[in-house]
Amino acid sequence: MRQLAAEADRIATLATKPTTGSGRRHRAALDAIREKVGYHAAWAQWSASADEIAALIDRIARHPARGIDDLIIKYDALQWSLLDDGAAFDTAVRRQVVAFRRDLVALAGSR
């Protein structure tokens, strides 16, 4: 998606010259270019995949943990939704979350 957006931006920059009051026209042109390069189709696919992942994470979170292995699975789902999906940007929090997973895995291995 980033590549498609960058390609659309590149084409729009080459195709249009900035003029006074052209904000709406530029946005409309950019939207048309994004459609041509496939950005909108890719966005729809990404959005559908994100919805599926969110539903799966919700199912995992609702399932009761019956042991440490279940806790690790629940943790991995939570980590994805918080860190890998871009929700948490603080690097200190990211390090703490990753360290907590190491502790969970070590605890599971020590049984």
Note down, in words, how this protein is organized:
The chain has 111 residues and is mostly helical. The chain has helices spanning 2-15, 23-37, 39-62, 68-84, 91-109. It is elongated.
The largest sheet, given as strand count, sense and whether it forms a barrel, is: none
Which structural class matches the secondary elements?
A: mainly alpha
Helical run tally: 5
Question: SSE order in H/E notation?
Answer: HHHHH
DSSP helix fraction: over 70%
Number of strands: 0
Assembly type of the chains comes to single chain
Q: Report the β-strand fraction as a percent range.
A: under 5%
> What is the average of the pLDDT values?
83
Shape category: elongated
Rg, Å, rounded = 21 Å
Which regions are unreliable across 5 or more consecutive residues at pLDDT < 50?
Answer: none
The end-to-end distance, rounded to whole angstroms, is 44 Å
Protein topology:
Elements: H1 2-15, H2 23-37, H3 39-62, H4 68-84, H5 91-109
Summarize the structure.
The protein is mostly helical and 111 residues long. It is built from five helices and no strands. Helix 1 (2-15) crosses helix 2 (23-37), helix 3 runs antiparallel to helix 4 (68-84) and helix 4 (68-84) runs antiparallel to helix 5.
Features:
111 residues, mainly alpha, 80% helix
